[in-house]
Amino acid sequence: MSTSVTRRTVLAGGAGAAVGLALPGPAAEANGHRPTSVSFTLDATTLDGGEQVTSVTLDTGRLGPIDPAGLHPGTFTVHAKARSPIPIAPGDLIFSEYDLDRTVTAARLDRHGNIVLELSHAEGQLGGGTLGYILSKGRNVRLDLVYTITQNTPLIRRHGPPITITSFVQGRLSNPEVDAFSHHVSGSGMKYRLYSPKRSPRPGRRPLVLWLHGAGEGASLPDGYYDNETTLRANRGALGFATPQAQRIFSDAYVVAPQSTSYWMEDGPRFAPLIREIVEDLVRRERVDPDRIYVAGCSNGGYMTLKLTVAYPDLFAASVPVCGVVEPLGAEGPPLITDAELAKIHTPTWLVTSRDDDTVPPETNTIHAHRLIPGSLVTLYDHVVWNGYQFPGHFSWIYVARNDPSLDGTHLWQWMARRRR
User: Fold this and answer.
1) CA distance 272 to 297
2) Cis peptide upstream of residue 196 (ω within 30 degrees of 0)
3) Cβ neighbours, 10 Å, residue 383
4) Which of 50, 108, 140, 316 has the smallest set of CB atoms within 10 Å of its CB?
């Protein structure tokens, strides 16, 4: 039997379909009401530490005007159950499945007359996440979520008698930032997500930001798991470049996030041409400016960022390796990127890490690379703290996703946007 535990550094959750029952049918029939079924959506937000379900929207607009004065946090109860979509081996650990009541902090009506149940959520809080981390596989997976809604008091309508919903049908997981990225598969079979900038009267081609995920967001093909989802839900790495702020700075940029079939460090030289194929295909198919292609990635993806600039020295206008891996993490075997390769990189490079990173040691990786890459810039944080919450030191990509690194008054995104191949 698998063991479920909690770890504050990795959040858990997912999406599924289920039916949650409200007040018993006989009680509703006794009140003279016909059975009423309502669907609901799970509303999610990708926080810096991972995606969480932050509210539930009930499709009640068709029931007629509901009196908002009759809504309060106790009108409904919300129960959430999250389980892995793939089997967990005996004795293995997953961070973290859960089966609990979600705290409803507010109940309100949206502009369509639908009831929105706001749920308690916060960085590191158990019970709202949408990803689970399987320890033995080193992978995040999008967990199957089953939400059960229970109505505790009748809904007061402005016209007509009070109404009791007899059943709730779970719908999709909705995250507008994630949903803005379309799904694709390259000719070589590598899956990727693509954000396309909004149509603009501004003529000409657009920049392209290539984001490379960490090890935990790769596929687990022995289990048939290759979801093209975790790359956008585990952190804000790719999403940051699609925000209105970033889009203004980059003058409307495409953002592409490929998903490895395993993890980039497993076979960087083999993955490099597969990633280049995606980039070159986007240059052909979309309005991508080949002189403004930028690459950034975290941890495993930081390694792949460096590897790409070694393999294709004239492809990118700028490179941002975040807590990237250069030396083997087990301290055995040859370097993943040699000193000679680092010394030959001429792509403008800005490295980022935190001094308290105990997953990828800064001195032998980021700092070492900075010393060898000609003209490279580096930002070293002491800790990773955002909005008063301290994350593990390895999470320095949070700063990149928020455009926090700066040197001499110039922030990272502005520096990237000014670079040309």
Assistant:
1) 13
2) no
3) 14
4) 108
Q: CA-to-CA distance for 355 and 366, rounded, in angstroms?
A: 10
What totals of helices (H) and strands (E) does the chain contain, helices first? 11, 25
What is the rounded distance in angstroms from the CA atom of residue 13 to the CA atom of residue 206? 35
Q: What is the pLDDT of residues 94-113, one digit of tens each?
A: 998 999 999 999 999 999 99
Name the pTM for this structure: 0.91
Q: How many other C-beta atoms lie within 10 A of the C-beta of residue 108?
A: 12
List the chain residues with pLDDT less than 70: 1-34, 201
**Separation of alpha carbons 211 and 378, rounded Å:** 19
- CA-to-CA separations, 157 to 43, 66, 316, in angstroms, rounded: 25, 4, 59
Edge to edge, the sheet with strand 377-381 lists 181-185, 191-195, 254-258, 206-212, 288-298, 318-322, 350-354, 377-381
Residue 248: count of CB within 10 angstroms of its CB: 11
